[in-house]
Amino acid sequence: MQESKVCFSAKGIVKHYGATHALKGVDLEVREGEIVGLVGENGAGKSTLLKIIIGAENPSSGQMTMEDQPYAPKNPMEANAAGVGMVFQEQSLIVNLSVGQNIFFGHERDFRRYGVINWPRMYKQAQRVLEEVDVGHINPRKKVSDLNFATRQMVEIAKVMNVTQRTDGRKCMILLDEPTSVLSEEETENLFVQMRKIAACGHAVVFVSHRLDEILEVTDRIYVYKDGASVGSLNTGDATEPLLYEMMVGRSTTSEYYKLERQVEPQDAVVLEAKGLGLSGVFKDVNFALRRGEVLGVCGVVGSGKEDVCEVLCGDQKPTAGALYIHGQKADFQSPAQALAAGVLMIPKERLVEGIVRTLSVEDNIAASNHRLVSKGPFVLAARVREQALRLIGRLRIKTRGPKELLMQLSGGNQQKVVFSRALASKCEILILNHPTRGVDVGAKEEFYGLIRDMMQEGKAVILLGDTLDECIGMSNRVLVMKDGRLSGAFDAPARGKPSQVDVVSAMM
Amino acid sequence: MSQPTKPGAEKGPRLRDNLVKYFSFSAIVILVVGFTLARPNFLGVANLKTLLSDSAPLLIMATGMTLVLLLGSIDLSMGSVCSVANVLTVMIINELGPQLGPPALGAVVALLAAAAFGAVAGLLLGFVHVKLKVPSFIASLGFMSLWQSVAYLITAAPVSVAKVMWGGINWFKVTFGVVGLSLVLALAWVAVAYLFQSRTSFGKALYAIGGNERAARIAGTRVDQAKIVAFVLSGVCAAIGGYFLAAKLRSSAPTVGDPFTLLIVASVALGGTSLSGGRGGVLGTVVGAFTVSVIQNGMNFIKVDAYWQSIVFGFFVLAAVAISVDRSTRGLVVK
């Protein structure tokens, strides 16, 4: 492979937060025209490193250069000016502004004439920016809140490309922090095309993903991080999933990732049944039965209505047609609280928005859905809350300083583990797991899978919206496919004889 | 091993909490020293008695407001609910009391009536806020105006408690050393509120809703119920405050609660409860309420003009909120 010029380099980056050593001397080198992947478990330091590169954090020590210039941005604006842009893990668009306003946010003065903004010119320019990343079909006058997450992600990438483009011919670098977690397969492919296009222009791309298959598909070189240090870097051509997995976790992967040997046959008792369930304008005629000990996977593209089915099942929305039966009794949930009382709980998809209370401690977040179980009379027993938290922190290996630590101080993956712990602590019979492994690393995923298998042995039932199709098929006893608000297919998925992804996808499209 | 990757937040909350705590504590110390220098008998037994027993109504009302602020909501109608309860109390004591026989009985009936009124007022506000989805700020502003007029309609002019009925309200003047019975009762009320706040699932729900209402709902918290209960409690607290004022002043006034709205907010904010919800608690409010009481009593003691007093309180509210607001949060939502 031809060695091109170094675009960005970081040497010996160290970051302390008080007594904790988040980064212990990390190196990173990205050449022009190269796509570099960063992989590592949650808390390995990937996000911290990216935050330092974009100027959202200052390193405790270490040096960086960008295009042969010393580089030490104090804030993201300075980073942008030096040609470094980042698409954040959490959406950073302002949803009540239009696409165009978002793209040129903070640069409105470029379109100023006689003190007022020349909107037509701004929107025309926005259109051009969108076309550059092949999403010209998005109307720049549209409000961001009217777009789905995938489209928002593309807008964000267009925006970042625009602010980092330089006129002097020097190259820029784009950082993508888990951009694919909200995208469908097709959208992911489009994103990869864009990434390759950016790289083909000689720019550098840094890509973080928990999906190793994506990393292997799109990158040229891979850095592996573990516990705040780089374990090594290798050319993608030399890498395989098991190898990467071993480097990240420090132990070799089990071939039985989804613990298929522990998949149990569902019992006969139906715990939840949907009869002709519908929500006007979103989905209709949804029929299925969930049995004790069964994992029922639900697949579908973004916008197929699967998310809305979840919201109805957990009591967040009232169905406009059909009915829901829990243990044969008609259930008419007015709120998630009533669903919880009936033993139904959802782990939501959007962790920050719906999953966690940042200002509460780990133990209070874990106890949020089971006050009934840790109370005596009217009083919540602090000792039981503590004991339960300690047990789950140990069981799920949640990295925290203790049950009293505020949730906002945990890394994203560990926050997700807390949300999962909450579901376990709730002792609910029926769990709706909406992307339960979103943003957690490979090792933790495996633990989650083990816990789900445990629950099935205990006779619970799960409706699973997998983070990947692979996960959905691998974990489920049966897979339902949704398309345009209707069930479009159902596949049995016994441990021996899982349906092929191709078949499932063809029902989705 | 721990590895926080959400930096900045790490020291932020604790540092800010301490800052707020020290702000209130040091404010009390500085103020007491200052007032004592100005008038040495500020710390005399007579004034100390007044200060401590006068702080009781404020303490009770601020406790109720704390619960509402923990939700991230606000109840601006507390002052006028207090006024209505106040005029209601004196009306019942004067008109119904003599027929009931012993003055104490009239006083108890008046207390129950006032508390019931407060609960109804809170229920109405909670209903409008929760079910009709009117922001609490606006809803309570509407009720503030409404109850103000109701207070005037009940008795337009101040009415004194009839002398024969004084036996029912004299308890307010009972003291143990410098500590008045009213303060003891108020602190007992705070203790109950503290238990509610930190030991019951209702209290846990308050914090969860204030921190992230959507997440609390999905997790199965009874959001609407908790909110309505909080508003009912704040209404009851406001009404009991009005009752205490009647006992203290031995008279009613339809405007008696008006200045309290600001003082209540000042107490809670000085006590470190976040105005955006989810953080703080009634114990902080005790410190905040004493700070406010010291300022108020001290300014009266050194004869500061009433208009200047309002300026000082306005300043304190702004300073307390400016210190306690969490600027580290991503979306600083001011509601």
Summarize the entry for a quick read:
Helix content of chain A is 33%, strand content 26%. Chain A has 17 helices and 24 strands.
What would you note in describing this structure?
The complex is a heterodimer of chains A (509) and B (335). Chain A is an alpha/beta fold. Helix content of chain A is 33%, strand content 26%. The longest helix of chain A is centred in the first third of the chain and has 16 residues, at 149-164. Chain A is globular and about 70 Å long. Chain A starts with 5 loop residues before the first strand and ends with a helix. The mean pLDDT of chain A is 85. Chain B is mainly alpha-helical and 335 residues long. Chain B is 70% helix and 2% strand. Chain B has 13 helices and 4 strands. In chain B, the strands form 2 sheets. In chain B, strands 1-4 form a two-stranded antiparallel sheet. Chain B is globular, with a radius of gyration of 20 Å.
List the SSEs and their pairings.
The complex is a heterodimer of chains A (509) and B (335).
Chain A: E1 6-17, E2 20-31, E3 35-40, H1 46-54, E4 61-66, E5 69-70, H2 76-81, E6 84-87, H3 99-103, E7 112-113, E8 116-117, H4 119-132, H5 149-164, E9 173-177, H6 185-200, E10 204-208, H7 212-218, E11 221-226, E12 229-235, H8 241-249, E13 270-279, E14 283-291, E15 295-299, H9 306-313, E16 321-326, E17 329-331, H10 336-341, E18 344-347, H11 351-355, H12 362-366, E19 375-376, E20 379-380, H13 382-395, H14 412-426, E21 430-434, H15 442-457, E22 461-465, H16 469-475, E23 478-483, E24 486-492, H17 501-508
Parallel strand pairs in A: 3-10, 3-11, 6-9, 9-10, 15-22, 15-23, 18-21, 21-22
Antiparallel strand pairs in A: 1-2, 1-4, 4-5, 7-8, 11-12, 13-14, 13-16, 16-17, 19-20, 23-24
Chain B: H1 12-38, H2 45-70, H3 78-95, H4 97-100, H5 103-130, H6 136-154, E1 159-160, E2 175-176, E3 179-180, H7 181-199, H8 201-211, H9 213-218, H10 223-249, E4 251-252, H11 260-270, H12 282-301, H13 306-324
Antiparallel strand pairs in B: 1-4, 2-3
